[in-house]
Amino acid sequence: MSGSVAGGARGASKKSKVDNSAMEEDQEALNLAADWADISQGLRKDLGQQAHSQWIKPIQPGCLCKETGTLDLYLPTEFSANWVSDRFADRLSLAWKIARPDVRHVRILVQPGRRQLPELRLGSGGNPRRAANDGAHGGDSLGSVLDDDAFASLGQGGIGIDASLTFASFVTGTSNILAFNAAQRMAAREEPQFSPLYLKAATGQGKTHLLHAIGHAYLASHPNARIFYCSAERFMVEFVQALRQNQMIEFKARLRGFDLLLVDDIQFIIGKSAAQEELLYTIDALLAEGKRLVFAADRSPQALDGVEPRLLSRLSMGLVADILAADIELRRSILENRLQRFAAVDVPADVIEFLARTINRNVRELVGGLNKLIAYAQLTGQVVSLQLAEEQLTDILSANRRRITIDEIQRTVCQFYRIDRTEMSSKRRARAVVRPRQVAMYLAKVLTPRSYPEIGRKFGGRDHSTVIHAVRLIEELRTRDADMDGDVRSLLRQLES
């Protein structure tokens, strides 16, 4: 009798280990799928829609060998695998190494009959994908998550919610504090004073981050809540699919069963009258039951051309909160916050200042630039420096730079310090002349793509070593002389305005 009991215990233990192993494999598959969603989106921007759809989109991540760091990527045919391997292997390898430090090698293989990745039935666990700052959408398919079993398990999970995009990881400043506070109110245990909340922001400014943060915080304060995050485009796709399969009753019932509905990129619902009408009825039904709704778009409700007036009125009846472009102080804070993830990497203050001032179009590009710089330094064994940043971030920097000339810098500095313009090229070494000249050299290096020798030629044919000395001296003075730091900040504001 005791033997049979012991045997049963051993059998149960083995089964438990097998189950745990299967769960770990599925969780790892989900992680890889989420990372691939981020990487694929970035490659679509780099390669263009046509090339991405034909060659990159069919790729499916396979297994990652922990010992060798080798990740398998699968394509459906030998021809496509060879084509991608010949043309995109290096790009894919670098992208994966940046996204996941444990990936050291990438293999592109053919395996048409491979096991599909598990569907995103998250139940008690949120989507573990890491932050891509803003704009990455994954796991938002109603069709994949709203079957009967998955729908029944939503009591303790947020479908499509990225657990890393929280309020704690969102850096605030004057440009986004209203939206941040409104988002926190929407996620609080108490009933919000407004619903729906409409977040308006240009691409890459943090609206998607706040959507995920709302879902994460709401789930923490309402453990049994049903939460769903999707894009407007995905909403339309699932609506059409339900319509074609005569499943509209199930579609409506399941969609309206959520306590919190988060819809991103609502501008993409333009012109789809049937989908607009269904969304309108869904909003009315959820609001009537006291449910919470949050929408995000790159323009205000009134600027959504092709949206019927009744839906516009629903979108704007709550609170419309703008997220403005991040100012220089916020960009610095975002970079410093991001650096906490790279504790072992030393990034000099002048590099942070350079990135914060130069990459000013959106936060996603700013963080992406820092990530790329650090990844390149780690993979090549180089030290992060201003020169490395200029060399490796050429595309990002050129897209963000306002074309400030050295002549403009010299003129502004001379007006600020009330000296004659000729002093920028003169040989005089009086302190009242030398210090403004050094400040102008420093600003020329920070604000223009010119090399040290080129800058030296614009300052009376001075040697590049003189320019390097001036740049380093002003950098040092800014750290210990408040007056100098104030002068430079004031000049930077004038030149960048």
Account of the 3D structure:
The chain is an alpha/beta fold and 497 residues long. It has four domains: 12-110, GMP Synthetase, Chain A, domain 3, CATH 3.30.300; 142-323, 3-Layer(aba) Sandwich (Rossmann fold); 328-400, Helicase, Ruva Protein, domain 3; 406-496, Chromosomal Replication Initiator Protein Dnaa, Chain: A, CATH 1.10.1750. 56% of the residues lie in helices and 10% in strands. It has 21 helices and nine strands. It has helices at 2-47, 49-56, 78-99, 142-145, 148-152, 177-187, 207-221, 232-244, 248-255, 273-288, 309-315, 328-339, 349-358, 363-380, 386-392, 394-400, 406-417, 431-447, 452-458, 464-480, 482-496, and strands spanning 60-65, 70-75, 105-110, 157-159, 197-201, 226-231, 260-264, 292-297, 319-323. Strands 4-6-7-8-5-9 form a six-stranded parallel sheet, sandwiched between helices. β1 and β2 (70-75) form a beta hairpin. α12 packs across α13. The protein is globular. Residues 113-158 have low confidence and may be disordered.
What composes the largest sheet?
6 strands, parallel
Helix content: 55-70%
When the domains are counted, the total is: 4
Q: So how many helices?
A: 21
Overall CATH architecture of the largest domain: 3-Layer(aba) Sandwich
Terminal residue distance: 86 Å
Shape: globular
Global structural class: alpha/beta
Number of strands: 9
The percent range for strand residues is 5-15%
Could you report the average pLDDT, rounded to the nearest whole number? 80
Helix/strand order, N-terminal first: HHEEHEHHEHEHEHHEHEHEHHHHHHHHHH
CATH domain topology of the largest domain: Rossmann fold
List low-confidence stretches: 113-158
Please write the CATH class name of the largest domain: Alpha Beta
Radius of gyration computed on alpha carbons:
27 Å
CATH superfamily of the largest domain: P-loop containing nucleotide triphosphate hydrolases
- As laid out across the biggest beta sheet, the strand order is 4-6-7-8-5-9
